[in-house]
Specification:
alpha+beta; four-stranded mixed sheet; three-stranded antiparallel sheet; 14 helices; about 50% helix; flat
């Protein structure tokens, strides 16, 4: 089964939509044409596109680019390298001379990526989704944002100074989203979901003390005192190994409370004894109830969710009976909370006249 993105409509001769993926590697799509990292003829041509994609507004002064990509060369040598990289990058992005210059344009001393505006970048989509999740405080919006983080930023550019700070910032955003989602689950009494989310955070940052403390609190509050104490031991060993440090006073105090049986309860319903605050209305859809459980196909689901974030129209293709409809409905079900206006199913198969569409 395949998913196919349909780019925004463009007039004849105009550049197609460009999609740049920077998480867990580097891939560029120009319309339906996919350019893998190995297809770039020069690594610095690829670096030029990466740098502009990560720059706010996607434009940068040529001297800044030269200083970042060739810091050890003199001005003349760096300028020659930039001209060569620009030529190869344009050639890789566009199939014709006229089209290629539209994807990478030089205006005086500024270089600009996709000045037409037909540009989608996974990093920007993730940051926008993270902002929306925090605004709505909706678990579905958090999950939609987390799905867009496919892995760390440009792992192959491990020691490029212009990547390192942004990589760490995005990683921190992802980690913070996990902690905030776990807190939402905890506040609404969803203990197992909160525990699962905190373990995802520890997979990213094993020494994240807030996640360890959250697990201690959740385990203790749900009657698993021994597991809560074992979590403190994990925290202690991890901090010692990774940072040469000890748990904070707050974590030590939490352990002491658990030992004496006076641990803080895990959920707000237990603490306050009142009804839980409801999430926003989740009935904003007309999706049919599943007749059976949905198993597997996690990779395809993530691919579809990420593709949906970069296009207005997505088509699933495959042989009859391969499960396209079931997969589409499952993705739609997962994303109901992520869209303010909900998710709606429109059946077109029964229609016999195209005007009715």
């Amino acid at each position: 089964m395949h998913s196919k993105r349909t780019p925004q409509d463009t007039a004849d001769g105009m550049p197609e939509e460009v999609c740049v993926e920077l998480f867990d590697g580097f891939r560029v799509s120009v319309g339906a044409r996919v350019i893998e990292e190995g297809q770039w003829r020069l690594s610095k041509a690829a670096s030029l596109v990466k740098l502009l994609a990560l720059t706010p507004g996607h434009k940068r002064h040529r001297e800044e680019i030269m200083a970042l990509l060739w810091p050890d060369l003199d001005a003349e040598a760096a300028a020659n390298n930039l001209r060569h990289a620009l030529h190869l990058a344009r050639h890789t992005l566009g199939t014709t001379v006229g089209a290629s210059s539209r994807y990478l344009r030089r205006r005086g001393d500024l270089l600009e990526l996709c000045p037409s505006g037909l540009l989608w970048i996974d990093v920007e989509a993730f940051e926008e989704a993270a902002t929306e999740a925090r605004r709505s405080r909706n678990p579905g919006a958090y999950r939609a944002a987390l799905d867009l983080y496919a892995g760390e930023l440009l792992p192959q550019d491990r020691y490029e100074g212009w990547v390192e700070q942004r990589r760490e910032g995005l990683r921190l955003t992802y980690l913070t989203l996990l902690l905030e989602l776990a807190k939402l689950h905890e506040e609404h009494g969803e203990v197992e979901k909160a525990i699962s989310t905190l373990w995802r955070a520890l997979a990213v940052e094993p020494a994240q003390e807030e996640a360890h403390a959250g697990l201690m609190r959740l385990y203790a509050g749900s009657g698993r005192r021994d597991e809560a104490l074992r979590q403190y031991e994990r925290l202690q060993k991890t901090l010692s190994r990774e940072l040469g440090a000890d748990p904070s006073a707050a974590s030590r105090r939490l352990r002491a409370e658990i030992l004496t049986g006076h641990s803080p309860l895990a959920t707000r319903s237990s603490q306050e004894g009142g009804p839980l605050e409801e999430y926003p209305d989740l009935g904003n859809h007309n999706l049919p109830a599943a007749r059976s459980s949905f198993v597997g196909r996690k990779r395809e689901m993530l691919e579809i969710k990420r593709a949906l974030a970069m296009t207005r129209l997505l088509t699933l293709t495959g042989v009859g009976g391969s499960g396209k409809s079931r997969l589409a409905l499952k993705v739609a079900e997962d994303l109901v909370e992520a869209y303010p206006d909900g998710v709606w199913l429109v059946e077109l198969a029964p229609l016999s006249e195209e005007e009715l569409v």
